[in-house]
Every structure is written in structure tokens, then in C-alpha cells.
Amino acid sequence: KFVIVGGGWGGWGAAKALCESGVNAEITLIDALPDPTGNTPYLSPTGKPVEAGTRGFWMDYPNINKLCAELDIDEDDVFTPFTNSSFYSPDGLEATAPVFSKTKLTDLIPSTIPIPDVVSDAISDTIVPALPSPLGQIVATFPLFERIPLADRASMAGLLLATIDCLGGDESVQEQYDRMNAHDLFLKFRLSKRLVEDFIKPTLLVGLFKPPEELSALVVMELLYYYAL
């Protein structure tokens, strides 16, 4: 017997995989909602419809793509386009993470810099060429900080150096990073305290559910390397 707790995409995916595995077993899925299939509308206390499950996901989820293909569902018919992610601190909006594969040249120009209309029209649809990770992420995100000073943003260069060093293919170097926590990594490569506290730390709490001092530097470097759409 198998009991799966949670009727989200992960739970239904596990149930589907077990059913298709050929295992002769009884599979039970339990969820807090009386009907986690989505057939019964879930309403708020004021009577408004609410989606209790996942509202979005990153691009590289091949299991979702495969399921849509199996059900002959056109993804453009059921999913909205990918959108930017916003990062907030107690002081307000700190930065916006773009959809990197669709970043336009005009997105990299700070709003405080005036652009003549003729120039803006000429480059408005120009997509920024793909750059190696994490250089591409840094270039695309750099101008989108709302509050973090320029000097703090510039300290992101340390992350670029760390990622290149860490993921260069040398297993012994990767082991060294794995023994180091991310907090020590940020100190070693001189990232500013403001950048870490107001942007990187919240990103890690969302992506890896732990603060830098509890995370392997190697794991953090891998997150930064693959964090792109």
C-alpha cells in the first residue's frame, strides 16, 4: 500500500508514476481539500473562487511538458506566458528578476536614463543574445534593482568569479565549496552585506528554503548557475 500526502502537482505526479510503474499496489492520495481534483470550486470565506494549488512554475519542468503532450493539451491554451519575479524587503521592492530568454535590450537601460524615441523604437524588439550562465543573469538583472546602490550591485561580480571557479569541472574544487557554507562564500568573494541581506538571502529562502549559513556553497552556486528562464 502507498499513501501520498498532498494533492498538488507533486502528489498527483507521484500517484501517476506509481500507477504507470506496473506495481501491484493500492494507492491512496489524501489532501486537506474535500476534492483536490479541481472539479469542485474552492471558495474563500467571502465566496470568491481561489486556486489553492500551484500558481506558477519554472520553465524546465519536463514532467509537466510530457503530461500536456500525453493529454494532447496545447500549453499556450492553458498556461500564461512566463513573467518577471519581484523581490521585496521590509523597505519595499528591491529587484525584479526578468525572464532571461526574453530580455530585451531596452530592459537593460535604467529608467532614470532618458532614451530618444527614435533610439527606443529602433531597439525595442531587440532580444539580448544569450550569455553564459551566470554572466547572463547578472547582466540582465543588474539594472533592475530599485533600491540597492550601484556599489552593492557591482559586488555581484564576486558571484560570477565564484561560479566559474566552482563549476569549472574540477571535482576537488567542488568538494572544497561543498564543505563551505554560502555565508562564508559571500564573505570570501566580498559581496556587500546589503546585496546579501536584501536580495540574495531572500532568493535562497525562496529557492532552497534555508538561509546562506545553512547551505552548501556548491548548492548555492548550482542554483545561481541554473536559475534562468
Offer a few descriptive terms:
two-stranded antiparallel ribbon, 2 domains, 8% strand, 11 helices, two-stranded parallel sheet, mainly alpha, 229 residues
Strand content bin? 5-15%
Q: How widely separated are the two ends?
A: 39 Å
Number of strands: 4
Number of helices: 11
Shape: globular
Share of helix among residues?
Answer: 40-55%
Overall SS class: mainly alpha
Write down the Rg.
22 Å
Question: Main sheet?
Answer: 2 strands, parallel
* Largest sheet: spatial strand order: 1-2
Overall pLDDT, averaged? 78
Low-confidence stretches: none
Give the SSE string: EHEHHEEHHHHHHHH
Number of domains: 2
Descriptive account of the structure:
The structure is a single chain. By secondary structure, the chain is mainly α. It has helices at 9-20, 62-70, 75-78, 117-123, 135-141, 150-154, 157-166, 171-178, 182-188, 193-207, 217-226, and strands at 2-5, 27-30, 85-89, 92-97. The chain has 11 helices and 4 strands. Helix 1 links the parallel strand 1 and strand 2. It is globular and about 60 Å long. InterPro entries: FAD/NAD-bd_sf (IPR036188), Zeta_carotene_desat/Oxidored (IPR050464). GO terms for molecular function: oxidoreductase activity. This is Amine oxidase domain-containing protein. It comes from Helicotheca tamesis.
Give the helix/strand layout.
Layout lengths: L1 E4 L3 H12 L6 E4 L31 H9 L4 H4 L6 E5 L2 E6 L19 H7 L11 H7 L8 H5 L2 H10 L4 H8 L3 H7 L4 H15 L9 H10 L3
Parallel strand pairs: 1-2
Antiparallel strand pairs: 3-4
